[in-house]
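Components:
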Amino acid sequence: MPETFTISELAKEFDITTRTIRHYEDQRLLIPQRDGQHRIYSNKDRVRLRLILRGKRVGFSLGEIKEIIDMYDSPQGEAKQTQLLLTKIQQRRAQLQQQKKDIEDILHELERIEKSVSD
Amino acid sequence: MPETFTISELAKEFDITTRTIRHYEDQRLLIPQRDGQHRIYSNKDRVRLRLILRGKRVGFSLGEIKEIIDMYDSPQGEAKQTQLLLTKIQQRRAQLQQQKKDIEDILHELERIEKSVSD
DNA sequence: AAGCATCTTTACGTTTACGTAAAAGGAAGG
DNA sequence: CCTTCCTTTTACGTAAACGTAAAGATGCTT
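Structure:
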């Protein structure tokens, strides 16, 4: 596994366009190093990209994903910020649990339809 | 529980605008009866609306939601249509299970952050 | 040197899911 | 009758998430 990547390598690996990756950078979700003019992605950037795509699959907006991702790099010292972070985590958790329940409900519905059809 | 509803009653109940409900009708996700000029929603319509909003919460587009909802009212006779329907159900199921896994992964990540913060 | 591949920035275009304003039609109450 | 409220249709506006040229820089290769 190399430890740096070009934009097209990542694009191919995750099956997205380079335009998409640059767009995530425009939105400050990804901030790769530069080799002169060219972008150069670290393995950490690659992990972030994976997180972004995971967030997208569950229906989060890029703004929401940025909020979640930023939790990783949040200040580990100031008490007030910590409280705010914990609150946000709780909100996200509640939302995710609602989504999980929604998904389970839909899965049950699909099961019902499947059974009623194969009769 | 009344058995019919006005558009604003449903809007208030589900905390959405009437514009949103009419938009769902434009996209053929909802087709209420009419009392002359006015829309009149049955309890079945109300259930459909609930399904629509559930689909939205998990990140489906209105088009995708329509596909899923239409599975309910799918032809219960033609064999070929049935096969196609079963295939679609399988695809949706796979997608939903991936989403469920994504959500569980994010929940775990949030847990990790929470612990590392409260140390 | 010329061509090709890959990178860059800039910028207008497109789709989805509504928001928002305009104009008009009942129906109910004072 | 007039106002107010709720409804309707029509239609332009908008934010998000990219798509899609266009035009130029850089390096490799033949």
